[in-house]
Amino acid sequence: MSSLLRLLSSVPDPGITGIIDILAVAFLLYQALMVVRGTRAAPVLLGILIMVTVYAVANALGLEALRSLLSFIVPYLGLAVIVLFQSEIRRTLARLGRKRWFGGGAFHAPELVSELLMAVEKLADEKIGALIVLERDIGLRTFIESGVRLDSRISRDLLLCIFQPGLPLHDGAVIVQRDRLAAAACFLPLTTNPKLSSQLGTRHRAAIGITEEADCLSLVVSEETGRISIAVLGELISHLTVAQVKERINLHFEYSQPGRAAIDESPADIPLDDGRDALRPGEKARP
Asked: E strand or H helix at 190, and its extent?
């Protein structure tokens, strides 16, 4: 007991600044682990940590041959981390800047939300596939330029016309900027999340993929089941009613009542083994 007390007394007092420093480092490490959790980058990060640990052990035990070998590799691990984790780093920095510190710049106008929801409800009733992306703070200009520019006011009839099967603009996504339909038939990045079911169609993967790159919200209507889903922050929320879609749009764009949680704090269900939105055998996937 006395030795334990001597050990504790020898520990320097970190003070308020030291405690804040420790908490900040712990928070950053936790956020870094959350970014790579469940991704293909996790095993790579584990391998890098093992290599660094082996190098430290070899250096401490005086294993010169092993230390000399690893000394040629360890200095380049910093560059390797940047190259291997470039998408995760970009996503993390984008999320750090997704809060609206000075306000403005987001999709709004309740009457336009109603137009959008009426179109989604009609598409779901008729089981017409659709993908609509609502821009928030991070611009989607790159993806808008990949489609057909519209720059038109949000309209239920226009959305129904765009997504009619067989028409030129049916495939791809519609991107909404503030109160305008910016473009249609846009190409979006597909998610590479290994947790997702391999039977998920291209449209749902594109909806998730774009929200991994930006702070937007994606609306998806399944052409197989008519099910309405929302993708946000890399997660897919399925089996939603029109009322629930409206609530989540309000939460994401901060139109909720005071005290309501933000949508990134809401539970989400990424379907892992649910194949109800899967393509039928021999059917071609659509974006």
From this structure: none
CB 113, CB 178: distance < 8 Å: no
Phi first, then psi, for residue 239 (nearest 5°) are: 60, 45
Does 277 fall in a domain? no
How far is Cα 49 from Cα 71, in angstroms, rounded to an integer? 15
Tokens 């991704």 sit on residue: 39
How far is residue 125 from each of residues 120, 160, 166, 224, measured CA to CA in Å? Answer: 9, 12, 18, 11
CB 222 within 8 A of CB 129: yes
For residues 137 and 248, membership in a common domain is answered with yes
Please tell me the distance from the alpha carbon of residue 282 to that of residue 279, in angstroms, as a whole number: 8
Quote the tokens at residue 122: 């009609």
Q: Would you state the structure tokens that stand for residue 201, as one six-digit string? A: 């169609």
This prediction has a pTM of: 0.60
pLDDT digit string, tens, across residues 230-271: 998 888 888 899 999 988 888 888 754 333 333 343 434 434
CB contact at 8 A, 217 and 249: yes
If asked whether residues 141 and 20 sit together in one domain, one would say no
Q: In degrees, to the nearest 5, what angle opens at C-alpha 90 toward C-alphas 175 and 131?
A: 20
Number of domains within the chain:
2
* Residue 187, in any domain of the structure: yes
